[in-house]
Amino acid sequence: MKWVSALSMRPSLEAALDDVIGQAQKSLEIQADLALLFISTSFTSEYPRLLPLLQERLNVRHIIGCGGDGIIGQASPGLTSEIEEQPAVSLTLASLPGVKLQTFQLMAEDLPDPDSAPDRWVDLMQVDPTDQPHFILLADAATTKVNDLLQGLDYAYPGAVKIGGLTSGPNLSDGSGLFCDDQLYREGAIGVALSGDIKVETIVAQGCRPIGQPYRVTDAERNVVLRVEEQLAPLDLDQLPETGKEQTPLEALQSVVDTLDEEDRALAQHALSVGVVRNEFKQKLEPGDFLIRNLIGVDPRIGAVAIGDRIRSGQRIQFHLRDAEASAEDLEALLEQYLRKQIGDHAAAGVLLFDCLGRGEGFYDRPDFDTELFHRYIKNIPVSGFFCNGEIGPIGGTTFLHGYTAAFGIFSQPSRD
What Pfam families does UniProt report for this protein, alphabetically (predicted)? Predict the structure, then answer.
């Protein structure tokens, strides 16, 4: 397996394509099976010309890609650049021996009812679950029932990794740019299923750090948390947490805020989120164990809080803060955790990054932050992708649509050990 990536910032579409194709083909030197193309919305008016131009210049079995307001790719060997709000084209070519590829395009009206049997989803996708596929997904937020799609794919392909993002841009009134083989689509979702001799791992950094302690929800309605109880850490980590007093979540939040320093207390005024623990049986919580959701409202009369997802009694939650420092710490902790789990030499061939529009230079006050931090831990691997309106990736074995997240898909051949 071999991946190569190239990036061009030339303002002419033809020149940019010639640039990235020339760089990528020179580095790959063998026939590519898959091309991944991410193109700046600066070229929106030229999207209809893109695939014909690409096919004139490039011989490849399958192409998928999309437009984005920021583009990620290899500016030179070993150097990944995140180009925001400027013309840019990123092309990745992958040679995937022993890998079966199947591209697809889905419209919202084609999706089965959420209560449908898995067979309905398999009939739609035309991908055999026994092939143990993984999926790269690109979608238009306005015309795709993304949560229904992810729920259905998890139902039909429970062991599959799904990674991807939603198209972005300053003006998508004319529709998205979604590129699949020889077709341009303005709505729906596209992607590719990969099965066979391939391994896909993920790092989904949600950009938050926990504050205070976990609480168990004792009363909730839909997305509103009404009552919680403290989860007191036991002296012996092999024991279950003890429960403390029951209270409203607003009372719990106030007690947490009272323990913060002045800087974090100010941050809590505008950057507060709620982490929902995904594994109800895990006691020692680590980065990646929480699904981060926005805190979208409070009711001071009854002390309730509303979050951006359904919640039920019995689930554990913990308040989180989001800022540049917390985001960096979260990604760094996940990278360290990822490397600890690797056996032998790291053999990844290529990486896709689906980064939130809310990250980047405006968030960190410096360019290329997420990719530079990634390469500090995982070197000499091509990284490409784009800045998204929503990021797709798994937390605790379930696939979610995220915000403010950096979702990395790491592709390699399975170990022969």
Answer: FIST, FIST_C
Range of the domain at 401: 2-206+327-412
Question: What's CA 144's distance to the chain center, in Å?
Answer: 17
Separation CA 93–CA 27 (nearest Å): 10
Q: Are 46 and 324 in contact (CB under 8 A)?
A: no
DSSP-derived pairing of the beta strands 209-210 and 316-321? antiparallel
Are 93 and 34 contained in the same domain?
A: yes
- The answer to whether residues 180 and 231 belong to one domain is no
Q: HSE of 244 in the Cβ direction (CA atoms, 13 Å)?
A: 13
169 domain-assigned: yes
- Write out pLDDT tens, residues 104-149: 999 999 999 878 899 999 999 999 999 999 999 999 988 899 999 9
Pair 177, 184: CB distance under 8 Å = yes
Are 314 and 300 within one domain? yes
List, for residues 20-64, the tens digit of each pLDDT value.
999 999 888 888 999 999 999 999 999 999 999 998 999 999 999
* Tokens describing residue 168: 């972005």
Distant-in-sequence, close-in-space partners of 372: CB < 8 Å, separation ≥ 6: 80
**Amino acid (1-letter code) at residue 73:** G
Please, what is the Cα angle at 412 between 89 and 39, to 5 degrees? 10
Output the DSSP codes for 258-276. HTS-HHHHHHTTT-EEEEE
C-alpha to C-alpha distance for 107 and 110, rounded to whole angstroms: 5
